[in-house]
Amino acid sequence: MLTTITGLIAVALYAGSAWLQGKRLLSPTVLLQEVTTNRLVLLLAAAALVAHLANAFGVISTSHGYDFGFFRVASLFSWVMALIITLSSLRKPLANLFLALFPIAIVSILCSSFLPSHYDPNPALSGGVALHSALGILAFSLLTIAALQALLVAWLSRELKHHHFSTALRHLPPLQTLEQLLFEIIQAGFLALLAVIVSGFLFMENMFSQHLAHKTVLTLVSWLVFGILLWGRHRRGWRGKLALRWILGGFLVLILAYFGSKFVLELVLDRV
Question: What's the start-to-end Cα distance of the chain, in Å?
Fold first, then answer.
């Protein structure tokens, strides 16, 4: 019951924050009113994040074990996205992204709270393994956001280069702001991926056993790719198409690590 209540509270707060931001975007106001509205938008977003986290924890941590079903993971994924953009909006003009992001969070909360899960929770799953799984979801969420953000930056750069100033483009944050946010997300994803690797070696019995070898090796390769990218950005100023290739390359390897190994085990080797 408490999980449902926190979910509905989060939905209402996200909706209120997005509505205020939309009203602020469409209605010109004096500076004082705009500052007040911005603070209220962020306050509602922060409260929504707290309620959303409580809801996500409630639907994942069940009496039968940890439920990492699709909608549960999607809710946690949307929470990570909402957290990143909300925190970043404290320093950068990113609040317009709430209008696209918060509806996704609302849908994910409603689905995880009211739709049945087909995932079979494992009551024997230890806290360390659960932490490893949660960190994996966090890392994958961050680097998925980075991949999507990289595509957005590439599209925005192309539009500006060809002098295509559409209405949608005018409501997006500046290109430089989006690019800075992109590499901040990649850095966070890189550290989260490192935490996944470390926790795996600490809490899993054998990270290079037959059923984990594919995932372990590919995760290490992806972490190395993102590490080289961050080095290139810091030392050589990598950006544009070069950075995009490294980002998408690292993300592709990560997808293979998370889903490719599952495909091999379940469909090729016929193992659970």
Answer: 33
